[in-house]
Design goal:
Blueprint lengths: L1 H55 L7 H20 L8 H24 L9 H36 L26 H8 L6 H6 L8 E8 L2 E2 L5 E4 L6 E8 L5 E10 L4 E10 L4 E7 L7 E9 L12 E8 L1
Helix pairs in contact: 1-2, 1-3, 2-3, 3-4
């Protein structure tokens, strides 16, 4: 009887040990999954923050499209990472919702990257801004979905397992979000933040007018010096130089909100300006100042009068110069 009792005690102890190991493994699995979600959401939120920062640099900023394409690739990779997570059974609902969250984020960022160029063109800017607002709405939807389904499911699973949440030693549930300013859901806010090139009412009226539209860039000056397209031009790098573009409206109509641009090759220096109205057959000047003094050196500088609606000949809109900034 003593031996039998000893065997029973051993069996009970072994059962308790096995159960304890199973509980420990389950708790470790729950904690690890929560940590994986935390890491993924942090990376996704940071990816979104970088995108919004790039957008605020303006749609005419050199390299913006490339940066947004990288952000979109990051979002696709993060979606793949979410799909590959191994979730314990208690977290199955959270995992399903998490994949949907990351799908919304990938779709939203890809939508923004796809339509950013449209917002930089007067004839398509309104549609472009609207399409960007669709993208930001998808991102905001991902935040709502994450906080409505993912985090509550994770919290319930942790609580059911007796795992403390929060504090110095408890499990930390990521409560971040990718859209931190709800202004990004409004077209007027987006227009201002990204510097969308919106057409005026008068310019829109010209969009369907038949006949000849457009401008010719005749020459460019810095101060009293007219730049040469055949040799190297030497001008001071500091203060940031102002280029004067001499522009002729060669079309049949007055044109409105005519964009001018000067960019320095191999540098992220692009200056822009707008002529409120040009008159058919007449010549005017457009002054463009670089945003900062360029790094001294010799560069290819491109001056451009931007396309207006229905302009078909762009060959005479651009002049290129070799400039030594000293």
């Amino acid at each position: 009887m003593i031996a039998a009792a000893g065997i029973v005690v051993i069996v009970i102890i072994m059962a308790l040990l096995i159960h304890g190991c199973e509980v420990s493994q389950t708790n470790t699995s729950l904690k690890n999954y929560n940590a994986d979600v935390d890491s993924l959401i942090t990376a996704s939120d940071n990816n979104g923050a970088a995108m919004f920062k790039d957008l605020e640099s303006g749609v005419l900023k050199s390299g913006l499209q490339g940066k947004l394409n990288i952000t979109a690739r990051n979002a696709r990779a993060q979606l793949g990472r979410a799909e590959s997570l191994s979730a314990p059974s208690a977290m199955s609902g959270a995992q399903t919702a998490l994949v949907q969250v990351m799908q919304l984020r990938e779709q939203g960022i890809s939508q923004i990257a796809k339509h950013i160029q449209a917002s930089a063109q007067k004839r398509t800017s309104r549609d472009g801004v609207y399409d960007i607002s669709v993208g930001t709405s998808l991102l905001f939807g991902s935040d709502v979905f994450y906080k409505s389904f993912v985090t509550p499911d994770i919290a319930r699973a942790l609580n059911a397992a007796g795992i403390p949440i929060g504090g110095a030693t408890g499990a930390q549930i990521n409560t971040g979000q990718i859209v931190n300013d709800l202004g990004w859901l409004q077209s007027t806010f987006i227009e201002e933040k990204i510097g969308a090139r919106l057409s005026t009412t008068a310019a829109n009226a010209n969009n369907t007018a038949p006949g000849l539209h457009g401008h010719a860039l005749n020459y460019v000056s810095v101060g009293t010096t007219q730049l040469s397209t055949t040799g190297t031009n030497t001008i001071p790098a500091s203060p940031a130089p102002t280029f004067t573009l001499n522009v002729t409206n060669g079309g049949d109509y007055n044109e409105y909100d005519v964009g001018c641009q000067v960019s320095v090759g191999n540098l992220s220096d692009t200056g822009t300006a707008t002529i409120t109205e040009t008159f058919k057959g007449q010549t005017t000047n457009c002054s463009v100042t670089l945003p900062s003094p360029p790094t001294p050196g010799t560069y290819t500088v491109t001056a451009r009068v931007l396309k207006v609606p229905r302009e078909s000949n762009l060959a005479n809109n651009v002049l290129t110069y070799t400039i030594d900034f000293n």
